[in-house]
Amino acid sequence: MKYLKISLMALAVASALAGCNDNNDASPATTTTTTGTTSSFKSIEFSNMPAPAVAADLAKTYSTSVAKVTYADGTSKDFPLTYNKLFGVKDKVGGNANPAGQLYDAKMKPIMDPMGKPVIAETPDSNSLLKVGSNLFMVSHLEYDWILSDGAEAYKAADWYTRMPMSMILTGITQGTDGKLTVKSQRPIDFSSVDGLWIPCAGSQTPWNTHLGSEEDYDLQYNPLTTSTTTTTAGVKALTEKYFNNEKTANPYHYGFIPEVTVKEDGTTSVVKHYAMGRGTWEMAKVMADGKTAYFGDDGTNVFVNMFVADKAGDLSAGTLYAAKWTQTSADAGGKANLTWIKLGSANSKEVKALADTATFASIFDAVAPTAGACPAGYTRVRAGSAADECLTVKAGQEKAAAFLETRRYAAIKGATTEFNKMEGIAVNDKDKKLYMAMSYVDKGMLEDAKGPADDIKLKKLNAGATYTLDMKSAQKDTAGAAINSDYVATNMYVETALLGEDIAVDAMGNTANPNKIANTDNIFFSEKMRTLFVGEDSGTHVNNFVWAYNVDTKKLSRILTAPVGAENTGLQVVDDMNGNAYIMSNSQHHGDWATGKNAEVDKAIAAIDKFDANFGYIGGLPAIK
């Protein structure tokens, strides 16, 4: 087998999962090796498993990769990796009287469909495996709901809900002496104190051991003056009718923020939405090691790179928002650019929430449609969050409301670049001060368009997408010349060769991207101790989506997991040391979401797949990496 060599550098780098490590001292770990001697950990290698080719393999989640651990004395040991399913969305586990994927209203009563059957989301997303005191808990997302129960298809034509009120679940975890994880308890998390939850996609863990979620909807910033039917109106309808049961009308300005979940040792939780971090279609947010700088994945069309700098480390309730300007230096290999930062405003969550309670689009903006591609005097033409252009001007005194409630639009008005497409996960390599940003498709606004309101990004279409690297530096200033109070300010953006997808003519399996390279990068997570960027795919160009391990020092890439045909890999989190074991958390959703008629083995696999059999689980078999 070909191994991905991973040289472990300094082990004193601060971990974003500080609360998950029993041993927080800086002394090197020791392990009894295959020779019986005791030696410190040196490096790890992952073998590159083959892609599945027959129906039995195409239809399941599995790993045949092997991790080879090498110690300082030169000895080594192989650790075969295995995929472990903790539970599925239909399963009742840990004393939960309802299926894990059950959705709930504001009174925590199960939501039922028109047939009187439970509404069960089939979309497991983010995981945060957290050690809180002596207990282990996993916070998990249910992203959205897209399949009606059997017999309810007719209701699609009768205005059934395309955007259900969503949920997170808290699962208590037991860790066996062999490292195996099992479910101890489970319950849904109550978000009624923050008006419910809107499409929680990916997430992350804070340096202070809490869970950061997300609220994503591609059409969140729609213009009600020019748009009649949107997914935002569908979401508001579902929240009003199915979450609040018509006892309250949902306000779209209460959604599109970053929620934080704090888990206590007794399993109780508290939730908050960070209004001061701005409103968008957030795939996720990731806090840097300074505890105050955060970057966001803004998912959708014509989106932007957003940075938040908190006033205080460990407290995301107040701070300053910035938006990036892309100045292109090359159009090759995913493009290269320098980044500068435009300050949008400063605020705390209390004042932004007060604005959200009363604001409307019309109270913030005057808006008209462009005429022949031009706007009237006093208006700015923007393309932000959709393919449609708008002519906007911010009403007097509404700058703060615009900055924090219509963040992407305001960024475009201020001259930031809003041309990125399908921006997904965010990860950080703290030792090298590099940020990684998943761009699932290099398309649409990222292509050259001389007729657009702006044309900062001028790249060639790459359907397979790319994961960008951003170098971060200290002592940076914004475009007005004011100092940015962060040592983690991204200054440029480019793609390393192995992180660039490759489009191909359709092959015999049905792939339209090279199956031996990453396609449509989505979930990403960086392990400081393994010196490895892990990448999960959400691909319409690979028949099966994979999880990859990319060593940032050796530049080698290894496939370590495959999901069922059409399924998206989600919930990616790497825990280097949890009581003597390492874990790669990994879920999958929308199994079987692939067109038939392209390959007989693929068709057999799809026929065998239960689309509701969506996994919460992890890749196990690894020793602690410390």
TrEMBL record:
The residue range of the signal peptide is: 1-18
The record ties this protein, via InterPro entries, to: PhoX (IPR008557)
Name the UniProt key words of this record, in alphabetical order: Signal
Checking PANTHER family in the record gives:
DUF839 DOMAIN-CONTAINING PROTEIN, SLR8030 PROTEIN
Q: What is this protein called?
A: DUF839 domain-containing protein
Source organism per UniProt = Thiothrix subterranea
